[in-house]
Write a structure and sequence with these properties.
The complex is a heterodimer of chains A (366) and B (237). With 366 residues, chain A is of the alpha+beta class. Chain A folds into two domains: 213 residues, 3-Layer(aba) Sandwich (Rossmann fold), CATH 3.40.50; 133 residues, OB fold (Dihydrolipoamide Acetyltransferase, E2P) (Beta Barrel). Chain A is built from ten helices and 21 strands. In chain A, the strands form four sheets. A six-stranded mixed beta sheet of chain A has the order 7-8-9-3-10-11, with helices on both faces. A five-stranded antiparallel beta sheet of chain A has the order 2-1-4-5-6, covered by helices on one side. In chain A, α2 packs parallel to α4. Chain B has 237 residues and is an all-alpha fold. The chains are: A alpha+beta (366), B mainly alpha (237). Chain A: It holds the Pfam family ABC_tran. Chain A: InterPro entries: AAA+_ATPase (IPR003593), ABC_transporter-like_ATP-bd (IPR003439), ABC_transporter-like_CS (IPR017871), Mo/tungstate-bd_C_term_dom (IPR008995), ModC_ABC_ATP-bd (IPR011868), Molybdenum_import_ModC (IPR050334), Mop_domain (IPR004606), P-loop_NTPase (IPR027417).
């Protein structure tokens, strides 16, 4: 199923005007706060009526202001996962989970209760009340509740934003499993480029109420104009080769080996690694006597000088791209030019566990 | 033994007043409760032209002299009043000088208190929870029944008991609308008033005063207890 969204809405001092398609998989609406992400998701959910717009899932029209069609939220068959969970405090976890199913049409293709409970690891919580759950547990129940309502589309509005780092690391893998195991499209709002790199099939970058860029995570995160210099990053695909005794994990990429702090239980799988552009150093000669373990070889594909002292240099590593944020002074001193061979140096510890996610990008973009 | 003592402690006329008061207050509360919840919901959640007029109308019995409210009821629902004639002709319902009329007077007087308590409870419910329920497929009515109503239950109970207590004590509007007929419209306050009008009635009046205090205190304690229990059940740990 593909979701087509075209909306415009005016607030005081803010205009949202966007159009994009969300194909199968996870489409991340990415942007800073105030860029209109939540407004957009609420319009898709029917909780906000935009001035003008059309929202269609395949041939099912949710909203068309031209023909004055505006489906009520309860008829849209969506699973909305909110930032604050929004579990019903007066119901048990089990009753919360089954709430949506009660209203779903009979015989709709839905997830089995046991499967969802097992997927999210919430079996021991079923008899408890939401008041007795931790933040991470609440969010897992909220995911389960959305899944079990037999939705045709899942919406998630910054579902990790209210959690601390440890809880984020606990919940993110569930969204990865959701992406890989559940067939419905997921519209996921985030301002974290780490979440984009790990989850997204498609990224829609929003800026001031408009679509700044749209494409694969590697394309959009590499686009400085869309995500800003600080957010710019590369997403490399790699396979886990071995875990070594000194605590490092060896990965193989299209252009060479990467050594990263140990990644748990992912032997033999394809993973995504996000590398922030500001963590990458460049060297024209093969560097020697460096503490950094990861040296990748490529050719310079693009050089962009920023307005300030910075420059963004993109290397082609086979099919993939790796961006490095360096100073203009260095770029000039090194005499960098498009087409030159160049080495990229990445410190192992510059890649945090949150930057590493499961799953290939290619499989899902097809 | 105790039962017999209790029965003898109150005279038959006093017993009659106590039973009637409880019956009038019970029905006044029960029948006005759904309307009270609806009006509280409308005032808390809807925005419409004339909302302040509705709000004022609901609160009017709280600020008008009770005699005025009673007189207005008499003019409207009396046998010669427009609404009274319709009720009698179409449904065979006569309110004037009946216990049902006393219940109507009590309900009208207690209504503002009931609506205020329930409205506060509704305003405390996070509309985001209701929005979440609607995205899960619940229509407006189902959202209300499965989310809003359970969450406001402590407030509804508090409002109902407050209304019951107010109905038990209603005097001015009742006596103006349905007079003071023993066995029909003579509630505890009317009976106390009547006893105090005759020489030697102080003792009977005193006993009814004690009954009134006991009922009011019990209602308060029960409401506190129930509201706390329900709040724990709803608030969820």
């Amino acid at each position: 199923m593909t979701l087509q969204v075209a909306l415009s809405h005016h607030f005081k001092g803010f205009t949202l005007d966007v159009a994009f398609d969300a194909p199968k998989g996870v489409t991340v609406l990415f942007g800073p706060s105030g860029s209109g992400k939540t407004t957009l998701v609420n319009a898709v959910a029917g909780l906000l009526r935009p001035d003008k717009g059309r929202i269609v899932a395949d041939d099912w029209v949710l909203l068309d202001t031209q023909s004055r069609r505006n489906l009520a939220p309860h008829k849209r068959r969506l699973g909305y996962i909110f930032q604050e969970g929004r579990l019903f405090p007066h119901l048990s976890v089990r009753q919360n989970l089954l709430y949506g199913r009660w209203f779903a049409p009979r015989g709709s293709q839905d997830e089995s209760f046991d499967h969802v409970v097992e997927l999210l690891g919430i079996g021991p919580l079923l008899t408890r009340r939401p008041g007795a759950l931790s933040g991470g547990e609440k969010q897992r129940v909220a995911i389960g509740r959305a899944l079990l309502s037999a939705p045709k589309l899942i919406l998630a509005d910054e579902p990790l934003a209210a959690l601390d780092e440890a809880r984020k690391a606990e919940i993110l893998p569930y969204f990865e499993r959701l992406r890989d195991e559940v067939s419905v499209p997921i519209l996921y709002v985030s301002h974290s480029s780490a979440e984009v790199a790990r989850l997204a099939t498609t990224v829609v970058a929003l800026k001031d109420g408009r679509v700044a860029a749209c494409g694969t995570p590697a394309d959009v995160l590499g686009d400085v104009a869309a995500v800003g210099v600080r957010g710019a990053a590369s997403v490399l695909e790699a396979r886990v080769v071995a875990h070594h005794a000194d605590g490092l994990t060896e990965l193989s990429t299209a252009t060479g080996a990467l050594w990263l702090p140990r990644i748990a239980d992912l032997h033999g799988t394809t993973i995504r690694v996000r590398i922030a552009a500001q963590e990458v150093m460049l060297s024209r000669d093969a560097p020697k006597g460096l503490s950094a373990l990861n040296i990748l070889h490529g050719t310079i594909a693009d050089i962009r000088l920023g307005d300030g002292p910075g420059a963004m240099v993109t290397l082609a590593l086979g099919q993939e791209r790796l961006s490095a944020r360096i100073t203009r002074r260095s770029a000039q001193a090194m005499g960098l030019a498009i087409g030159q061979p160049c080495h990229a140096i990445i410190k192992s510890v510059a890649v945090a566990p949150e930057d590493i996610g499961t799953g290939s990008m290619k499989e899902r973009t097809q | 033994m105790m039962g017999a003592d209790w029965a003898n402690w109150l005279g038959p006329a006093e017993w009659q007043a106590v039973r009637l008061s409880i019956r009038v207050s019970f029905w006044a509360t029960l029948v006005s409760l759904p309307l009270g919840i609806f009006v509280a919901y409308v005032l808390a959640r809807w925005d419409f032209w004339g909302k302040q007029v509705l709000n004022g109308l609901v609160h009017l019995p709280l600020i008008l002299p009770p005699v005025v409210t009673g007189y207005l009821l008499l003019v409207t629902f009396g046998r010669r009043g427009s609404a009274g004639q319709v009720l009698e002709a179409w449904f065979g319902i006569i309110l004037s000088f009946r216990w049902t009329g006393a219940a109507v007077a009590a309900a009208v007087m207690a209504f503002p208190l009931m609506v205020r308590a329930i409205r506060l409870a509704i305003e405390a419910v996070d509309p985001k929870l209701e929005a979440a329920a609607s995205t899960l497929g619940a229509s407006r009515l189902w959202v209300f029944v499965t989310v809003t109503l359970p969450l406001i239950l402590p407030g509804v109970i508090a409002g109902a008991i407050l209304a019951f207590a107010k109905a038990m004590g209603e005097f001015g509007a009742t006596i103006t609308f349905v007079s003071n007929i023993p066995g029909q419209t003579q509630t505890i306050p009317s009976a106390i008033y009547a006893f105090l009008q005759v020489p030697g009635g102080e003792e009977a009046a005193g006993r009814l005063v004690i009954v009134a205090i006991v009922i009011a205190m019990s209602a308060l304690l029960v409401s506190e207890f129930v509201a706390r229990r329900v709040a724990r059940l709803v608030g969820g740990s």
